[in-house]
Amino acid sequence: MRLGFLTHVQGENAYRNAQELFVTADELGFDVGWVAQHHEPLQGGGLSSPWTFLAYAAARTRRIRLSTAITIVPLEHPIRLAEDVSVVDTLSGGRVEIGVGSGSGPAEYKVFGKDFEQKRELTTSGLHILRAALNGEEVGQGFKIQPPPVSDFTDRIWQGIFSEAGARYTAQEGSNLLLNRATYGYEEDTDVIQRVWADAFLETWAHERTPRIGLSRFVFPAKDRKEALRQIEDGLNNATAGFVQRGTFPAGQSTEEYLRRFHAFYGHPDEIIEALQKEKVLPVATDLITQFNPGIPDFDAAVNALRLIATEIAPALGWKAQ
Questions:
Q1: Where are the alpha helices (DSSP H) in 93-189?
Q2: Residue 6 within any structural domain of the chain
Q3: How many domains, the chain?
Q4: What pLDDT does 322 receive?
């Protein structure tokens, strides 16, 4: 299992602090650092240009791999995106991976002049061009991107999905599977729903290489549950209000119920370890991707949480720093 850390780049001094968290994660032995692309803050993040951010992170880190969860493919020109990815891959010495998806906000699509109702088709067509460009193929008469990628991208492309059909399609395409921190619009627990999707992905996979499943989870350790909740509750409440307004969450529920719907793991490391050992998707995951979102803890608390994840939680789940 690889260990990852995902930041949505939010809060006070968000860009500077997120870069420092990449440096910290690199020093702690995290295998992959992930960022989420959002053009609109209401969608839950503050980073619009992830590849610019990752280029700077590449210069400040030594070994951690660099990826997105996700880049919104329909809102990018796929050839320009491939060029950006390849530049960062070259600068980082081949440490780049890329997670792609369709995003979630119709307002973003409107601003970029794209049809939100066509987001799946746009994602599919864009991904095909992106994949071809990163494989060094011609994507226009006599045109190949420069610089050429450092190495083969076949096993470095991830796709975010939100359904069993999406999981099967991802397997057919040969992309790695990215599972969101939680499912929304379901009453059952996230891992119950997502285990069905993960099993469908593995059942459909027919390629020679080993399939990869990235499992994103809201994990925030602290000295106890009270302190953990104190650090994450403001971000949690703001995110919950937005979900209620959009009709994704029911109104008037307890904090504990909203934490369940976000599939949150928080509190003392021992409590988190015990809960994650019961997680139904983790046994088939190849990558555990931890994130604090929708919590927005202060910087020192975030650094401490990364340390606890790397030194106590992940090793108890079988991870070893390389």
A1: 106-111, 119-134, 164-173
A2: yes
A3: 1
A4: 81
**Residue 183 lies in domain:** 2-316
Report CA torsion sign: 130, 288, 169, 153: positive
pLDDT of residue 43: 64
* Structure tokens, 237: 């409440």
Q: Mark the ranges of the chain whose per-residue pLDDT is less than 50.
A: none
Question: Could you tell me how many residues make up the chain?
Answer: 322
Give the integer Cα–Cα distance in Å for 238 and 7: 17
Residue 322 in domain: no
User: What six digits make up the tokens of 250?
Assistant: 């029911």
Which tokens sit at 123? 């994602």
What CATH number corresponds to the domain at position 100?
Answer: 3.20.20.30
Per residue in 203-233, pLDDT tens? 999 999 999 999 999 999 999 999 999 999 9
In the numeric block, which tokens belong to residue 212?
């990869």
Establish if 321 belongs to a structural domain: no
What is the value of pTM for the model shown? Answer: 0.96
Of 201, 145, 136, 137, which is closest to residue 174 (Cα–Cα)? Answer: 201
User: In this structure, is residue 148 part of a structural domain?
Assistant: yes
